[in-house]
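Mods, move this if it's the wrong board.
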Amino acid sequence: MAMRPLDPAPRTYAASVYLLRRSDRSAPVAGEAAAGTTPDAVLDWLTTGAIGETDTLALFEGLAWRLVAAGLPLDRASLHVGTLHPQMIGFAWNWARADGLCDEIRVDGASLKTDAYRRNPLFRVIEHGETVRVDTADPAARDRFPLVADLAGQGITDYVAMPLGGGAYHNAVTLATRQPGGFGADQYAVLERVLALLALHVARHIALRIATNVLDTYLGAAAGTRVLEGSIRRGAGEAIRAVIWASDLRGFTDLTDRLAAADMIVLLNAYFERMAGAVLAEGGEVLKFIGDGLLAVFPFDRYGTEQAAAEASLAAARRALADLDEMNAKPPAGLADVAGWQPLKTGIALHAGEVFFGNVGAPERLDFTVIGPAVNAAARVEAMSKMLGRPLLLTGPVASHIAAPLDDLGAHTLRGVAEPIRLFAAGEG
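Not the wrong board. Structure tokens:
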């Protein structure tokens, strides 16, 4: 039996569009979209079985194949939704009957500024709420929308791009067929009825995705997931073992006195981008920013072993220090013309222990964080980094899992910590 090519119709995306995942289903959903399915059955599915579907890719792909099984001449379809996120404008799902693939993509804000977007039918839909339907054989349509010529080359005869429901997120859907003469009037009417129901599902999926985005952005991925799963009562949480990261910007008070507020915001964003970026790059969880401080964890269960978590935390700290050195040497945009902030320095402490990971606060205003003696100890160790003149300190519980040589600085008594803690220093490389 000949193997089907992994990607029989290679797809390419613009620089500001990212492929997140791909479903490869070259046939309708087994047992659910068999030949002989009717349009009414598809509509029934949208009001019953589809309600429990939380994966937008599965929902859209399943709908496309059901429409094909119901006799609709659908050859290409895409779904485009907006979202609330600081770095992206939305997501899209691209399905094609010919290759059996459905891609989930992320669309960043830079794409809105491209000529390709402005000359795409979706621009008219998303920005102006219009419905665009073109006969791909029409020379005027090809001149107006370069995409139309590409579609005609693929045998597409009829292409429709239309708004999907109302609201602030400017959702859209596109449909295309190779059928001679395009979609028939009855077929188009069925598609309009189907899309009216799909819009309700998409609104629900967007709400869930936005909630996830907001929680991940403000709480972190792990905490956000726990909150969405129902961990919202005060005191709800669990004890976990982890490496705790505590870091602090040196000279923060002096900098705030000397720099304009706008410049200080730019500086803090650049600084935290390097600190938090290093933590996230090594799989850690950023919990919160406290003024100029950063609290993060590297849970043991996420890495499988205590050694793996410790090594990841050390790699993150070294990366952060190296990135900060590079920032000092080559200031990013917005800081090159600001005087008096260099060199920027930080102190990082890595400590390991058991912490409570969960909800703390007042009944009507909770914070999902970590607390416990190990967190307090990490903060005290970070304060020692300035006194000892070493930007990166590890405690014995972390150092015991590190294979690389470290400088043993001996045991130190820390304020508020009952027993002396043995400290180790690591260089930046």
